[in-house]
Amino acid sequence: MKRRDFLFASAAAVSLPLMGCKMGNNNGGTVNANTGALKPLRIPQLMTGTQFDLNLQTGSMEFIAGLSTPTFGINSSYLGPVIKVRNGENLNFNVRNNLNETATLHWH
């Protein structure tokens, strides 16, 4: 290990607990820096096949207890689905923009 890497790792190990973050959390969730409470991450819907209907919509989520945050989502109020397809398949997407503004989808 290089000296620079050691110093960086040491600084992170000391700083993160002081900032209210917990280290070593592999429970699939995020830790609230103020309360230390674990809030599980939402798992997106899995879609398979060759025909997909995607609806862009508004919603709200409570990322912090008691505080509602406006969100955008695809087929839900937050995030979008995971689309699993086979290489070389022909796909059909019906995308409906239910937002009050122009939107762009990021495909990868």
Average pLDDT confidence is: 78
**Roughly how many Å apart are the termini?**
35 Å
User: How much of the sequence is in beta strands?
Assistant: 35-45%
Q: What percent of residues adopt helix (DSSP H or I)? A: 10-25%
Structural Rg: 20 Å
What is the H/E string?
A: HEEEEEEE
> What is the count of DSSP helices, taking H or I runs of 4+ residues?
1
Number of strands: 7
Query: Which regions contain 5 or more consecutive residues with pLDDT less than 50?
Result: 14-27
Report strand order across the widest sheet: 5-4-7
What structural class do helix, strand and pairing data support?
alpha/beta
What oligomeric state is this?
single chain
Please describe the biggest sheet, giving its number of strands, its sense, and whether it closes into a barrel: 3 strands, mixed
What gross morphology would you assign? extended
